[in-house]
Amino acid sequence: MEELTCGLEIHQRLAGRKLFCSCPCPSPDEAVPADAPHLVRRMSLAVGELGGVDKAAAFAVAQGREIDYTLPPAFTCLVDADEEPPHEINPQSLAAVLTLARACGSNISGEVQVMRKTILDGSAVTGFQRTSLVALGGSIPSPKGGKPIALQTICIEEESAGILPPIAGRTSFRLDRLGIPLIEIATDPVFHSAQEALEGAEAIGLFLRMLPQVMRGLGTIRQDVNISIPHGARVEIKGMQELRMLPVLIENEVTRQKALLEIISELKKRGIGFGVSEKEKKEKNAEHLWLDVTPIFAHSTCKVVSRALASGGVVLAARLAGYAGLLGRATGPNKRFGTELSDYAKMAGGVHGLIHSDEDMQKYGFAPEELANLHKALHLEKEDAFILIADARQKAEPAIVAAISRAGRLEIPGETRRANEDGTSSFMRPLAGAHRMYPETDVRPIRITEEMLANLPKLETPAARRSRLVSILGPELGEQMMGSSNFADFEKLTAGGNVDAKLAAVTLEQTIVSLRREGVAVEKISLDSISQLLEMATLGQITKAVIPEVLKELAKTTGAKPEAVIASHSWNRLSGPALAQAWAASGGDMRAFMAKNRLVVDGSDVAALMKKK
Fold first, then answer.
1. Rounded to an integer, what distance in angstroms lies between the CA atom of residue 435 and that of residue 247?
2. Would the pLDDT of 484 be above 70?
3. What is the CATH number of the domain that holds 318?
């Protein structure tokens, strides 16, 4: 895939409190309370700092949607609701980003200026996302010792709101996620294959995990990818959370752009120059672009049409001259050129989709006479295609104009697309431009002083950490801990030197994982209790075999102490005279002895006793 040029944007959440208020950051699996309050807003448009209007913002506002916001009270405040100005930027989060930037050898800015980035899809109540450029340039080590991954920028910004299912027909978001601190790392377009991009993303993710402040769990890190091919366009695909799908996403986008180039070439061969420019939209009457064909389908048995008409909707149709056979042309897995037009229609008008002439009309239930009358009304020739939308008029009109406009573009448009779970993508909005950025007037710039930089901790490199863990734990367990979400707990447990490192790693990576699979509520066990338990095992006061049983008991009772649980069950380790006495009581029957005492005797003690006997 030598023709591919690809760059990555990695977004990593930071733990602690939010970026511009004192609310705590929720965990990734935090549930939304059923009784959480709501507010409803509608977005409006403002000009940017340069006096222009961002086309992506204009596209979003044109949809005229109302947005419903849910505010979980434990994690939201008036700042999230845009009813109070933002507070000063979180210094701990800024320090974490500065630490990363210094470790990457980036050029750190002397002043961090908070900017507003226009976002009108509803994911920010304010209509903008606060973001700050912290550093330029730098690099991250290559995963296989090759050329380092060159970086463009390192930023700190606030997370957007979380998407919820629609409420009363409105787009809906949860505001507890809004404002979580994010590190944004943008690379140069240095990747030329899907595998290179995957390895690069893995390397950046591993480097980010060297920061103790990073969140772990599903959704806490995501990758946006910028893709282009010769004669194509730069396309940004957002929202991919499963890293394993990155190569599939990239390959499908290359396939899509190649297919679109072939369709464009075919249209040019057919002498087609059909299109609708912005100027034409203003100068021409809407009827020149499409027709209202509602009377043709007044008694239609097509469910799509009949449902729309029953709700007071209309049926609009348009002729695409010379497009016969192209709307059904595949652009990827389960995707057609008609899907491209449908995506534009959905985003522009909020319709469910469109019907086009390259589809099987029988599956929709259209009568032959309806189609004959439609062909006559649109003056369709054999080489022509049509598109049809049935919905409320206020939705259908902008939708069909957007679909016509997209069909007539004899180029691949630069756009922002949404990553789908199957590795394909769908149109979201046009690519944003320079007009979307302007200064944040409610937050003062932050001077980055030499003293501030001198007080930053030194970040351990992935290579140094891997070497350290392997030397302590061995190759297999060390590599497992290297990428584990339990690493921070492992460091806390072993910091004082009172706990055996291998025992701590096995307990975190294997024992607790096994108990969780059994249904044990291991999340109720405090790290302090685990630490006390492991200290007792390290000192030889209990055996390793009893640790899972003690953990089960600790999970049952909030506030239970390991010493009390061990004492109540007589789980202290048997040794010396007590061990000899237990052996004698078994009558020298090893099977009976181990059946009774397996949790409280250590194999080495039994071996020593047998040797002595």
1. 32
2. yes
3. 3.30.1360.30
pLDDT of residue 279: 45
The span from the CA of 162 to the CA of 176, in Å, is: 8
506 is in which domain, residue-wise? Answer: 462-573
Total tally of structural domains belonging to the chain = 3
Assign residue 211 a region: left if phi > 0, alpha if psi is -120 to 50, beta otherwise?
beta
pLDDT band at 284 (very low <50, low <70, confident <90, very high): very low
Q: Are 141 and 159 in contact (CB under 8 A)?
A: no
325, part of any domain: yes
Quick one: 52 and 115 in the same domain? yes
**How confident is residue 532, by pLDDT bands cut at 50, 70 and 90?**
very high
Residues 353 and 496 in one domain: no
As to burial, measured by CB atoms within 10 angstroms (0-12 exposed, 13-18 middle, 19+ buried), residue 152 is middle
Q: Give the residue-averaged pLDDT of 453-457.
A: 94
| Distance (Å, whole) CA 300 – CA 365 | 8
Task: Dig out the tokens for 572 from the structure.
Answer: 């202290």
Same domain, 203 and 289: no
Q: Around Cβ 17, how many Cβ atoms within 10 Å?
A: 19
Does 29 lie in the same domain as 160? yes
Question: Which of helix, strand or coil describes residue 13?
Answer: strand
pLDDT at position 200 is 95
Q: Is the overall model pTM greater than 0.90, yes or no?
A: no
| Residues 438 and 49 sit within 8 Å (Cβ to Cβ) | yes
Residue 287's CB: how many other CB atoms inside 10 A?
8
Q: For residue 64, give the nearest of 453, 536, 392 by alpha carbon.
A: 392
* pLDDT tens for each residue of 126-175: 989 999 999 999 999 987 778 899 999 999 999 999 999 988 878 899 99
Residue of 362, 355, 330 whose CA lies nearest to 341: 355
Q: In this structure, are 38 and 132 located in the same domain?
A: yes
Q: With contact defined as beta carbons under 8 Å apart, do 124 and 457 qualify? A: no
Instruction: Note whether residue 578 is domain-resident.
Output: no
- Read off the tokens for 67: 């947005």
CB neighbours of 114 closer than 8 A, spacing ≥ 6?
Answer: 89, 130, 131, 132, 439, 440, 443, 445
Tokens of 540: 């030889």
In a domain, 180, yes or no: yes
Q: Look over the chain and give the mean of its residue pLDDT values, rounded to a whole number.
A: 90
222: tokens are 């995501």
Q: How far is 500 from 218, CA to CA, in rounded Å?
A: 30
Does residue 283 surpass a pLDDT of 50? no
Flag whether 65 is in a domain.
Answer: yes
